[in-house]
Design a protein that fits this description.
This protein is of the alpha+beta class and 140 residues long. The protein has three helices and six strands. A six-stranded mixed beta sheet has the order 1-2-3-4-6-5.
């Protein structure tokens, strides 16, 4: 019998099982797509990862899920370098664009200076702030 269950501690197995029929449906509608994770890291002198960029490619777009640098590494061009490397990797993987989201208290201006444009927003997410969605076509 089929039943609905809230999973107390979901993991990769649940995520993958949920994603499988959705990906199959989408591939039937649009054709198969390259899906690939993208990770670009910043390492300290000891080789420890201290920040970087995490994303995923799908449907010829790179989605940047995380870009993070510790405070002592900001303002040194590393964010710009991460974005340039991400865009280069997206081009290498045949992407037509990059998209991401950020909050009003984070880096909206940073991304806009790099040519990203807002295509959507959610007010009061989190309360008192705005979540912005930005994109940049790589062939423009």
């Amino acid at each position: 019998m089929t039943h609905v269950e809230v999973v107390a501690t979901p993991g990769d197995a649940e995520r993958d099982a949920i994603l499988a029929p959705l990906a199959a449906h989408n591939d039937r509608a649009t054709g198969p797509t390259v899906r690939a994770p993208v990770a670009i890291v910043i390492r300290d002198d000891d080789g420890k990862v201290v920040g970087g960029l995490w994303g995923a490619v799908g449907y010829q777009w790179l989605f940047i899920q995380y870009l993070a640098l510790p405070p002592d590494r900001r303002g040194k061009g590393l964010g710009r370098a991460l974005m340039a490397a991400a865009e280069a990797e997206a081009r290498r993987l045949g992407c037509v664009g990059v998209w991401l989201d950020t909050y009003s208290f984070q880096a909206q201006g940073f991304y806009e200076k790099l040519g990203y444009r807002i295509f959507g927003e959610i007010a009061d997410y989190p309360p008192g702030h705005t979540r912005f969605f930005l994109s940049k076509r790589l062939n423009d």
